[in-house]
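Researcher: Please predict.
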Amino acid sequence: MESVGTHANDPISIGGRAYPREDIPDILGGKLEALPRNVRDTTRIPLGTYRGLRFGIVLHPQFPPDVYLEGAATRQSTLSREHQGPRAVLNALERLATGYAAESVHVRQDLSIAESQLRDYQARLGQAFSHDAYLSELTVLRDQLKAGLSATAHDGGNHMGPSVSELAVKIKAIKAANSIEATPLRAR
């Protein structure tokens, strides 16, 4: 952002040479015409400097090319399949250059959220799971219920432990006594 602001009135340079703004479309058009139409691998081709930042084209084997603007951070914008000439490249460069401020705000918001999530995680790290006893008790009752409902329990005449109906009542009572709050929704 700083480079874009500082070099707002600098001439655009292509191939290391600065040109007047009115000549840029023709010179850039010649450079674009010289690029290969088909490539086997993604190919990055530097073209020059725009507002103090390096710019170029990224050619893809099966997709339209991207325009990139590179300083401390790199931003890319995909050109449409129909419009890939010098005017489209210059428009994409302008969008990328003016979009740094909005992108910076977005990245700062994402960073703030990630830092908050990290603090929450570190605060919970090493603490016991608050519903461990509840989970363990339900697991034991579930396993007893499975055994009680299985065919081997009915065939063998094995009636050790509580009946299936007693287990169902216990499970319902435990669930009613331990209501777990839903995770609150994050406000945007």
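Model: The chain has a mean pLDDT of 84.
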